[in-house]
Amino acid sequence: MFWEKKLGNWVDSIRENTALPLRVELWNGQKLDFGQHAPQVTVKVPDASALSYLLTPSLYNLGRAYVEGKIEVEGRISEIIAISNALAAQTLKPEGKFSRIVRSFNHSKEKDEEAIHFHYDVSNEFYATWLDENMVYSCAYFENGDEDLGTAQLKKIDHILNKIQVKSGDTLLDIGCGWGALAMRAAQKYDAKCVGITLSQNQFELAKERVARAGLADRVEIRLEDYRDVTGTFDRITSVGMFEHVGSKNLPMYFSRIRSLLKDDGMAMNHGITTTDINNGETPYGGGEFIEKYVFPHGELLHIGAVLRYMQEGGLEALDVENLRRHYAKTCATWADNFETHAERIKPLVDAKRFRVWRVYLAGCAYAFAQDWISLYQVVCTKAGRDASALPWSRRYMYGD
């Protein structure tokens, strides 16, 4: 049959270039091994119609086949991701449709709210199962590399608050506050008066509950609000894992908005994911396409150079830029391990498709950060042109005594 010859030629071409610990089991009982040793990953193909996903193994096609139940995959998720990438790299051309293509979306309050609901309003219990105890859903900071996740997340929050020199009595706006951990920490440890905003109903409700339970209602206000609707001015502003949802066309406006909300002597921090492609292309081999469809609708990643340009256009001066790519690779790998460890607790919380989406997504992100496809930058900024004489002369202040 035609498909048998095509499949055989494809397997042979892979074997000629690399030995993969992969086995493909067909519906007719045939087993195809891609290496000489025992397979670490097994792909089960239930019928001939699913072969098209394998023969054009973009990360989108392979991910789609898995999450839609077209194929079954056995093995450790980290090995599944690595082998999927190897298949894509060996089969697909590095240019054209499966390259690091550039896409842009039109963002509005309504579309952004829909995208946030799609990603964050799964259930609070779902996220609590694999995040740390404070439910911090952003890159941790492993100061020494051996911290547990909860410790590293608190160190990340303190690292941010130290960088922007939060002090007693400061007003702080946290744009995209998640479940409230940063705002609560700023109030508890630094005696700041905080406002946290989110578009997620689930986050809003639990964050308010956590604030009340901690006795911080007099110092922390959680709002269900779009950043475009915030009024007033603040001494300090943080944006953690938020600007990825803003869109490239809106970034100058976004940073201009932060500038308008910042007091003249204030400081802000933007902490977010960037692409490492200088042309602002998404992750290669269709990885970005998978994320757009199944995980983060309308998300856009820009190169740090573009981010800094738009920040300047918005009237902000970057004072300090730190790359935490390695930290996010470790964070995502830890999340993926937690997800695997607690899989049986997670499965009843979501349908089978969403379980598979998140299983692939977390491990895939760990791989993407490790491969330098994407990165994470913290940028400290102030209003452009301000008198800088009061600012520290070195970075020593960020690290305590």
UniProtKB/TrEMBL annotation:
One Pfam family this sequence matches: CMAS
GO biological process terms held by the UniProt record: lipid biosynthetic process; methylation
GO MF term set: methyltransferase activity
Domain DUF7884: 14-90
Presence of the UniProt keyword Transport in the record: no
Assigned keywords, A-Z: Lipid metabolism, Methyltransferase, S-adenosyl-L-methionine, Transferase
Keyword Acyltransferase tagged: no
UniProt cross-references to SUPFAM superfamilies, sorted A to Z: S-adenosyl-L-methionine-dependent methyltransferases (SSF53335)
Entry annotation: catalytic residues: C365
Family from the record: Belongs to the CFA/CMAS family.
Name of the protein this chain belongs to: Class I SAM-dependent methyltransferase
